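Below is how a single chain appears once it has passed through the pipeline. First comes the sequence as given, then the structure the pipeline wrote out for it. We keep one example in the README because the format questions we get most often are answered faster by looking than by reading.
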Amino acid sequence: CIEMSCNSIPVGEQYEATFYIKSHSIGSQKINISVHYSVDCLVREGWELIKCKCQKEESVSLETVTPLRISHRILNMKFQPQDCTFISEPFIVQTNIHCLSPWKIRLTNAKYQWNQSVTTVTNLPDQLNGTTLCQQEIASS
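Resulting structure:
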């Protein structure tokens, strides 16, 4: 449940709020939105204002998709694919990030978390930091 409040909206104005939701499953999702508000009404000139409490409910359906498909390839030092590696033999891990989202996605921080038995040769900065991907675009590092 998300609660938002606004004090007062002048006549003819709008109130807009942004909120983010997270889905734990793929497919069609139903979101119920309920707005509670009160309106001061003047029924007749000279009478007191009447406070009317109102409620509006609406259901919205969203289609959720997997935003990214990530794949890895192990390459030898000649950039040729290889199926396995051997102790003390250097190799390259190539990562491909395929954007499946209909919205632009900006990659802000990507890093590998290596097993303790793997030693990196250098501490390279993230090559994809700040990259923006549109639908069907692929970034590699």
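The chain has a mean pLDDT of 84.

See the next section for the split statistics.
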